[in-house]
Give the backbone structure.
Amino acid sequence: MKITDILTEDYVRVHLEGTSKEEIIDAMIDLVAKQPKVLDKERVRKAIFEREKIMSTGVGSGFAIPHGKTDAVSDIVAAFAVTAQPIDYQSLDDQPVRLVFLLVGRDTMVGPHIKLLSRISRLMNNEDFRKQLLEAKTPKEVIDIFKQAEETLTES
Amino acid sequence: MTDFNTILFVASFLILASVIVARLVDNIGIPTLLLFLGIGIVAHSERLVEFGFATPALTQYIATIALIFIIFAGGLETQWHQVKPILRYGITLATGGVLITALVVALFAWKVLGYSLLEGLLLGSIISSTDAPAVFSILRSKKVSLKGTLKPLLEFESGSNDPTAMFLTLTMVAAVNTGQIAVGGMIVTFVLQMCIGIVVGIVFGRLVVTLVNSIRFSYEGFYPVSVFAAAVGIYASSSLVGGNGILAVYLAGIVIGNSEIVHKKSLLRFFDGLAWLSQITMFLVLGFLVTPKEVFSHAQGGFIVSAVLIFLARPLGVFLSLVPSRFNIREKFFLSWVGIRGAMPIILSTFLMTTQLPQSIEFVRIVFFIVLTSALVQGWSIPYVARLLGVDAPQPQIQRFPLEFETPQGSDTELYDFIVPYNSTATSKPIVELGLPKGTLIVLIIRNEKYIVPSGGTILEPGDTILALVKKAHLEDFRKVITTGEGTEFFPL
C-alpha cells in the first residue's frame, strides 16, 4: 500500500496552528475525522494518546508520527501537517517537531499498518525530503512531494 | 561431426542463454517452454547447431530421458492429500478426456480437412495430452492462485495423461502402417499397460523408500544419486515388462515424495534442478527439429486444428468426462482453458518421423504450430482467464508476520510497535550488546517494508519499525535503550 493511496490533499495542512503537542494532535484528529472511515473520533483520540503515553512518537529530526490501532476506523486513515511553529513534542531526541504524520490503523489489520509505518519512517529519514516538505506551500505540493518520493522507492 | 569442445560450448551457451532469457522475460509471462523451444528453433535455423544430431531417433531418446525426470520430479512434489479427493476426476480426465479430445480432432480432420479417418485419429492422438511441465510451471508461478481443487486436479491430469496419448499414438502409427484398428485388442492392451505401470510404480516406489531408509550411505550425495538411478530403472523396468513407463515413474514419484525418506529436502532440491535442466534440454533439442519457416509453412492447417483443439475438442473432453462431478460450469471452462500442449505432442511426432508415412512431415509441422499457439495463447492468458471466470483465489500471504499478541493473564508484558529514532545511538552495536531490560524481546524488525527476524547479532538502523515484547515497567528503560543504546542491564555473550 502506498502512502498516497490513503493520504489526499483534503487531509493535509501546511501551516497548522497550535502551540502544544496535544493541540496539534487534536487538530489532526479533527482533520482526519472528516472522512466517513472514522467511525468514532473520541475512541481514535484515545488510541492515539494511549500509544503516545507508552513512548513519544517524536522519532527525531523534527518529525513525529502519532499512530494507533483501533476498531473505531473501518480502514487505515492518515493526515499530515507542517506546523506553523516548532512544537515541543517530548521527542526522543528532545528536538522540536514541525512535521507530523498521523496514522490510524484498524486493529485487525496489523500487517498493512506496520508496513505503512515502516514506509513513512523510511521516507522521513531523508533530510532532503523533510526539507522539501517544510518548504511546501500548499497541500497539493505536499502530496506531489510524497508521490514523487514513492515513485522512486524501489518496489519491494 | 562437429568438434567435441564446440558441442560442449554451444550446449552450455544455449542452456545459459535459456536461463538468462527466462529471467529477462519473467515479467511478460511467456511460458518458459515456449522460450526454450524458441531458442532451440532459432539456434537450429541459425545453424548454431550442426551436431548432425537432430535426428528424430536421438531426439526421442533425449526427450524421453528428460521426460522421466520431469514427470518424476512432478510426482515428488505432488501432495497426495490434495490429489486424493480429486483422484477419480483426474483419472477420467487423463483417460476419457484425452480420448474424447483425440476423437473430436480426428473427426474434424476427417470430415472437414479431408484427411483419412486414420490420419485424423493419428493427428488427434498426438495432440491429445496436456503438458505437465508447462502446467506445473504456470500453476506454480507467482501469478496464479486457484480456488479449491482445480490446481491439484490440473497437475495430476497433466502428469498422468501422457501415457494415454502415447498409447493412442503408437496404436495409431501401427494402425496406419497395417491399415486397420482392432478396438477390442486396443482396450485390453491399454488396460494392461496402465495396470502394470501402476503396480510397478507403487511397488518400486515403496521399495526405493525402504531401501534408501535402511542403507546408511557413506556420503549424503549418494541419496539423490540412488533415487536418480532408481527413477530411470523404474521407467525401464515397467516398459520392459509391458507396462507404461511414464505412469510408473509418476506414481513412484508420488509414493516417494509423500513418504518419510532420509534427506528428503536435498532430494527434492536435486530433482528440482534436474527437472529444470531436463526441461530446458528437452525443449531446446525439440526445437532443433524444425526451422521457423517450416513451422509456418503449415500455419493455416495448424491454426485451424489449434482452434478446434482449444475451443472444441478440449472443452468437450473436459465437460463430457466430468459430467458426474461437483465442478461448476466456470470451473469446467477454466479446466478446458488449461489444456496447454507442450513436449508430448512433439515427442510423439518424432515417432511419426521414424515411420514412412507420407503425411508425417506435414503433421510434424502442424503439431509444432499447435504447440506454439496453445502455449502462447493459453499459457499466457491463464492468470487473466482465472480472474475472468472467478476461479482465482487471493494470493496466499506467505509473510504473515505481524503477529497478534494477547496479553496472558497475570503478565505485564505487551507487544508494542516502535520506531528507532533517526539520530539514535543504539545503531552502532548489535542488539545483544544494547543491554535490553530483562524479559524484553525484539520480535520483528520492519526495514524498508521487509520483515527481518532479528538475532542477537542484528544491528538496528535509524527509522526501523520494530515489534517488541516489553514489560510495562520497563518501558522507560526500553526507550532509553533504543534512543541511546545504553541499557541498564548488560548480558555479555
